[in-house]
Amino acid sequence: MGEVILKMDGIQKYFPGVHALDNAHLEVRAGEVMALVGENGAGKSTLMKILTGIYQKDGGSIEYFGQEIEIHGPRDAQSKGICIVHQELNLMQDLTVAENIFIGREPSKGLILNQGEQNRMTEELLSSLHLNINAKTQIKRLTVAKQQMVEIAKALSYQNTKVLIMDEPSTALTASEIEDLFTFIRQLKATGVGIVYISHRMDELKQITDRITVMRDGQYVDTVNTADTTIDQVVQMMVGRVIYEEPKSHSNVPPDAEVVLEAEGLTSLDVKNVSFKLHKGEILGFAGLMGAGRTETMRLLCGADRRDSGTIKVRGKEVNIRSPKDAVNAGIGYLSEDRKLFGLCLGLSVADNTALPSLDKLSGPLFVDDGKIHKAATEYVDKIRIKTPTVKTLIRSLSGGNQQKVVIAKWLHRDCDVLIFDEPTKGIDVGAKSEIYKLMNQLAAEGKSIIMISSELPELLRMSDRVVVMCEGRVTGELDISEATQERIMTFATKRELEEAV
Question: Three-state DSSP class for 24?
């Protein structure tokens, strides 16, 4: 591996009531992929925000190519060749690839934008990165994977990029798209760029990284060579304990369990005649590739989208669900895949977010009872171990995993009988995943019924009593957990309508 190009040593960062970073350390070499891992709240994002100038450190030093430096802001970091590709894409959908890459730095002739030169520069950049993307294409017409590549190209367009931070770059990608991403990363390595790769997907570390730096509770734990370390060892360093999730070999649901929810012939533009039953105490997994219609089906079930036909029954009685409020009144709670857009009010506190679906229970004749809200939120912060300074803390300041726990808390407090978890562990570390799995199993044991959408097949096989598989908006298979395997699920997940008709 190449020379050390970046060294962060003894980094300290304080927020009111929180010692976020305590003697944090990171070293990056030229032409390597350095994984940065840790549970949510471990300090990874804070450390990267210091490196990219968003936060100022309160102690410690940063050395860049052997010289100690100060980073005064994001532009300063970019000018030094330190760039980041965020987990949430920051592209403007109606602009072209070229316009996104050079926004704010457009080439011009006097006061007039030189669009031809901008397109030429973009094509040259994309070609150098071996990316088959047209500079004139609108971003919204690209797949998520190609949008991710454009984000990376944008970071590299500063020409002097030497350190590239990639925050959960594979979260929204399919297996084939991840392979394309990894091929691209290997090409970047060959040019001498040092890459900091943040991921909660432990299986990726062995495929793409050279070394792994582990953080826990704001502190540096260790840096190890990927080839010499097992993933179990990395996980143990992350959480400070051994985590083993025993796969489910048989359903825990009695054969005569009550049917609490039944969907018959749900149909819309993206959903084609979907029917299924959910039993009391059951975890029903929904599998399928991206675009299979799983989320679209659940949005019909919850009244978030309008269905063209089909019926919904709760405990044998047909219900007319025309809005999310109707679904909540029928005892159905939906935990969206996109927690920031649909699951939380980022400008409100932990307590207020927890209380939102239950304000009718927490209000007097004229006013909301702040005391009841505070008590309820405190109960669930303790119950599901949400890491937050206080329940009055704004939700936007929490880590992704703890934000997800608040989403769960609000539906637990509402006491819905049916809970729909859409990608419940997306962007969440292994420790928090384990806690959410235990919580879901506990809820099922208490008689709650759960629908779980997941793109991670090991997660579905670990948690589900049954697995419903979808492809192109249709149900193509249903498997009891005792007969479900990754191979069988994928066979149904790729069973297109044309193939079935042959």
Answer: strand
| Residue 339 DSSP label | I
Pairing of strands 449-453, 418-422: parallel
With a CB cutoff of 8 Å and minimum separation 6, the contacts of 294 are 286, 287, 288, 422, 453, 470
- Cα 53–405–275 angle (5° rounding)? 120
What secondary structure letter does DSSP report for 368?
B
Question: Other CB atoms closer than 10 Å to residue 316's CB: what's the count?
Answer: 9
* Alpha carbons 452 and 335: distance in angstroms, whole number: 10
Q: Which residues contact 326 (CB under 8 A, 6 or more apart)?
A: 303, 319, 320
State how far the Cα of 284 lies from the Cα of 171, in Å rounded to an integer: 23
CA 131 to chain centre: 25
Q: Which CA distances in Å does 267 have to 44, 263, 285, 311, 326?
A: 43, 10, 20, 10, 19
Model pLDDT, residue 54: 93
Average pLDDT over residues 391-406: 84
**What's 276-335 look like in SS3?**
EEEECCCEEEEECCCCCCHHHHHHHHCCCCCCCEEEEEECCEEECCCCHHHHHHCCEEEE
Q: List phi, psi (to 5°) of 166.
A: -120, 110
pLDDT digits (tens, 9 = 90+) for 194-222: 999 998 777 788 899 999 999 988 899 99
**3-class secondary structure per residue, 389-401:** CCCCCEHHHCCHH
Nearest to 2 by CA among 31, 34, 28: 31
Handedness of CA 353, 359, 363, 367 (dihedral sign): positive
Query: What's the mean pLDDT when you consider all of the chain?
Result: 87
DSSP codes joined into one string, 99-135: HHHTTTS--EETTEE-HHHHHHHHHHHHHHTT----T
For residue 259, give the H/E element and its range.
Answer: strand 259-267
- Contact predicate 29/10, CB 8 Å: no
Cα distances (Å, whole numbers) of residue 293 to 287, 301, 453, 474, 478: 10, 12, 11, 7, 15
